[in-house]
Amino acid sequence: MVKILHAADFHLDSAYGALGEEQARARRQESRELVRQMVEYANEQGVQVMLLSGDLFDSDEFFSQTGEDLALALSRFDGQVFIAPGNHDYCASGSAYDRILWPDNVHVFREDCLERVDLPAYHCSVWGAGFTAPSVEDDAVLDGFTAPDDGWTHLLVLHGDVGGRDSRYRPLTEEQLAATGVDYVALGHQHTFSGVHTAGKTAWAYSGCIEGRGFDELGEKGVLCGTVAAGRADLRFVPMGTRRYEILNVDVTDSQPLAAISAALPRDTERDIYRVNLTGETEEPIRVDWLQRELGDRFYALELRDQTRMKQDLWAKCGEDSLRGLFLQELRKKYDAAADEAERNKIEQAVRFGLAAMDNREM
């Protein structure tokens, strides 16, 4: 049995283009510090093997200090580190993996074919392969591979796309994972934690990215940590990200927008980055700039989107000589004959949908 930590998709030195220059710089520094925090956590938990499944860097253009900080942090890990480069940080001549002086406890899988590293002290073998170009469109890396049935724990670390048959980023299938016979496959590329799955006797998972960088990477982000033994993987997701990205939809119909947003917000949003979409009907235009000033201190960063529509008299053109008028006239008869408030509400909703369709707009 071996204790592992699985992480991926750090995308160090990302641009954070949606943030201001000062905040973007601060976020990049926080991402560097997150690696150190991860190593400290791993040491506290007695982790023996760290599997990093690619895209540690967002591109080949990164600050030299970032590479030095990463190498220094990993050198402080008490166990062994294995890196499988991905499509963003592929391993080629002159790439990040050539320009950084890696500590002795770090092994980089530099070839686009499987390599085995044995750890006799743990009766464990780690297999891996890296990207050597920005894309890998074939799925041949696992062809013919089955780990030996030798009583050792077998781990596999890869960057790839399970289920993406037409993917440019190493398409993989569950059938291929099952055929490997390894005990755990640590995957990178998908930025959402997948849960721990099984294919045959093989457990596999995407840990997801360690830190969200935009509104396509919502909620808690982190790493997987736990034990793997022959035929068994006992791993749990550990939140690790410094800040979260969240999207909140707030209906301000018949409400004051500030009060409606405040009521919908969870506690402790000061460290997080929110997009608040305002929906519903209003009597007057939303004062977005004023709301931004009033709410700004409650977030690290806030993006407000006004998706409201002005309230209208639903029956204003009822009876006029037009398709709209005839449509309203028929529904007004049903509205007036409705037995209760619930039925009238349904008819009003039907009117809104009908008018929106006539105006070629969304509800």
Short descriptors:
elongated, 363 residues, six-stranded mixed β-sheet, alpha/beta, single chain
Explain the overall architecture:
- The termini are far apart.
- The strands form 5 sheets. The chain has a 6-stranded mixed β-sheet, with no helix packed on it.
- Helix 1 (21-44) runs parallel beside helix 2 and helix 7 (323-336) packs antiparallel against helix 8 (341-358).
- It has 2 domains: 2-239, Metallo-dependent phosphatases (Purple Acid Phosphatase, chain A, domain 2, 4-Layer Sandwich); 245-310.
- It is built from 8 helices and 19 strands.
- It has 363 residues and is an alpha/beta fold.
- The mean pLDDT is 92.
- It is elongated, with a radius of gyration of 27 Å.
Short overview:
The protein is built from 8 helices and 19 strands. The protein has helices at 21-44, 64-75, 96-99, 174-180, 257-264, 288-295, 323-336, 341-358; strands spanning 2-7, 49-52, 80-83, 106-108, 115-119, 124-128, 153-159, 161-162, 171-172, 184-188, 197-199, 202-206, 222-229, 232-239, 245-251, 273-279, 281-282, 301-306, 309-310.
